[in-house]
Amino acid sequence: MAIPTAQGGEPAQTPRGGFFGHPRGLSTLFFTEFWERFSFYGLRPLLTLFMTAATVKGGMGFATSRATAIFGLYAAAVYLGSLPGGWIADRLLGQRRAVFYGGCLIALGQFSLAIPGRITFFLGLALMVSGTGLLKPNVSTMVGELYPETGPDAGARRDAGFSIFYMGINLGAFVAPLFSGWLGERVDWHVGFASAGLGMIFGLIQYRLGWRHLGGAGLRPNATLDPGARRRALAVLWSALAAAILLAAAIAGDVIRVTAERLADVAGIAILAIALVYFGYQILWGGLTGEEKKRMMAISVLFLFSALFWSGSEQAATSLNLFARDLTNRTVSGWEMPVSFLQSVNPLFIILFAPVFAVVWQRMGRRNPSSPTKFGLGLVFLGLGFLVIAAATLIAIGHAVMGPGVTPHKVSPWWLVLTYLFATFGELCVSPVGLSTVTKLAPHRKVSQMMGIWFMSISLGEVVAGQVAGTYERLPLFGTFGAVGATTIVAGLILLLLARPLRRLIGSAE
């Protein structure tokens, strides 16, 4: 029997007893992503609070609509960067080196944020966008390459592996707000940012020490380029980088005048257009087989529903974070809990329930629900959570619009906890399953760029999330949260109806 191989023809790791019954390399990627997410989520709950805080309190004094638009653009760019990050790994670096270089850029970005000043703030965000674009899609791709085996339970086993990997993400997300969030809110904003950068340094050390456990996964680029093609790829890369620098300089120097809110409007349309053009090109002229075209169509449909899911889920860092600050009673025995502490609730639930979902998916075997079915359930769960928080806003301020003249009746934090519980169930049905689905359905020669395209769905969701959160002080919160809840529930029900035809497109991959 031939030994399954990873890219480059080297033996792939297939043993089942290395890490919770999974390949040993999963532990290396698990802890790499733990520290990268510690870095990301150490910053995430602080950004909106820092930007909306008054300058006399060390903040930037931005209006809520501007701050949430900037946050949405930053978060969108983080995931949008996954597309060039996947392209660079596929053609030039390979996933393994791309992850390492990306981590270095992330750490530099965090330490730039630790230096007070508007220039260092936006420079830090740009460095983190570039680094995460290199790291995020490629570490996930390597997880998929640890599972080359086929068989009746191969798909469920891979889903279980991604669920364990996803638990590592949320361990970092759980710890970061308690540590970096507390430092940022109670000591100094910039100390909180620096602590997040220190976490990324730990992640880089761990990743390099665990390199040997990855076998051949991510060792070489997927696409074999001749010297001429490699030079052309490098020329495209450097030209794109130069164009990005010139555009940033033009905006910073007021040569191009654009508000964050307007830029968010344009970005959402642009991201959707890029995704549609990409899928259309691949299906029509991408040199795919008939089976690959069907699977690409299935990914394109799930892409749209994924974007919708994240446009609601990512309210956690913006509108729900502001709800925790303004409308939630955070006093416990005379001690006021930092706002960012409530950002640890969702990852805590992920930690508790990810193993449960992993075991359930694996034990169901052939009865394991299809990816579209899981996505539909995830949207319904998320919608139920927003109906809960909509009810809480009625208790807190009724149908009033948030503003200086509003005196809220602050509600129990358990409203947010219940909202995050439903969101967690939805996330576990969508996020790890989506990552696994892309690695199963994408042609191997395009898997990194397809992972980048998949992260674009989150990018699109982030832009929309920032725009929705920008209505925090303009529209009644009951209407905003209620609309998000109703939209996601209806979308989930529609996707459940589409599950059977989508499964036919997916074919034998599941």
Structure description:
The longest helix has 34 residues, at 154-187. This protein has a two-stranded antiparallel ribbon. The protein starts with 24 loop residues before the first helix and ends with a helix. It has helices spanning 25-52, 64-80, 82-93, 95-113, 118-145, 154-187, 189-209, 227-252, 260-285, 290-313, 319-326, 345-364, 371-397, 414-441, 447-469, 477-506, and strands at 331-332, 335-336. α3 packs across α4 (95-113), α5 packs across α14 and α10 runs antiparallel to α14. The chain is mostly helical. It is built from 16 helices and two strands. Helices cover 73% and strands 1% of the residues. The protein is globular.
Helices and strands, with pairings:
Elements: H1 25-52, H2 64-80, H3 82-93, H4 95-113, H5 118-145, H6 154-187, H7 189-209, H8 227-252, H9 260-285, H10 290-313, H11 319-326, E1 331-332, E2 335-336, H12 345-364, H13 371-397, H14 414-441, H15 447-469, H16 477-506
Antiparallel strand pairs: 1-2
Helix pairs in contact: 1-2, 1-5, 1-6, 1-7, 2-5, 2-9, 2-15, 3-4, 3-5, 3-15, 4-5, 4-7, 5-14, 5-15, 6-7, 6-12, 6-14, 9-10, 9-15, 10-13, 10-14, 10-15, 10-16, 12-14, 13-14, 13-16, 14-15
